[in-house]
């Protein structure tokens, strides 16, 4: 998935907060945004998996992007950004727990600095704005060492019996 359209057209992105920072995702990979609800923890799940929730009949794995991007600041964790199954190759419905959602906006290619983030896994670039910088991230972080979709297939009671 390319962060910038090759033909120079603007891309719509969703801006959201994680801790003290502002981040964005290409709106094309997002299915919906929902209020954070009650999660069911999965025993022995990786640190970045918060749990699963039933989202209109779909078991949705909820991931903490703060863990993926080593963000230490706390926040209200009010919203979940649910990714489009057809756009994300995780093997199931996945959502990110974010602190808040700000806006959808157009980003022109000339507003994105990719030079400073070449080595950063999961970062497409830095979007320059009038008074701030927004980190453009990708939900396809290759260093996730688990098939997140399979975590949601486990029964919440699995392993509960001794």
UniProtKB/TrEMBL annotation:
Pfam families: CheW. Residues 10-148 form the CheW-like domain. InterPro entries: CheW (IPR039315), CheW-like_dom_sf (IPR036061), CheW-lke_dom (IPR002545). PROSITE patterns: CHEW (PS50851). This is Chemotaxis protein CheW. It comes from Halorubrum trueperi.
């Amino acid at each position: 998935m390319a962060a910038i359209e090759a033909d120079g057209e603007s891309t719509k992105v969703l801006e959201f907060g994680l801790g003290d920072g502002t981040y964005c995702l290409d709106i094309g990979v997002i299915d919906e945004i929902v209020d954070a609800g009650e999660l069911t923890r999965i025993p022995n799940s990786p640190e970045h998996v918060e749990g699963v929730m039933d989202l209109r009949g779909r078991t949705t794995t909820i991931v903490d992007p703060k863990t993926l991007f080593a963000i230490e600041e706390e926040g209200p964790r009010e919203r979940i950004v649910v990714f489009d199954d057809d756009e994300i190759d995780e093997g199931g419905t996945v959502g990110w727990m974010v602190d808040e959602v700000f806006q959808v906006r157009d980003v022109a290619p000339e507003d994105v600095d990719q030079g400073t983030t070449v080595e950063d896994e999961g970062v497409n670039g830095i979007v320059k704005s009038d008074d701030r910088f927004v980190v453009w991230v990708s939900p396809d972080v290759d260093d996730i060492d688990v098939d997140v979709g399979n975590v949601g297939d486990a029964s919440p009671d699995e392993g509960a019996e001794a």
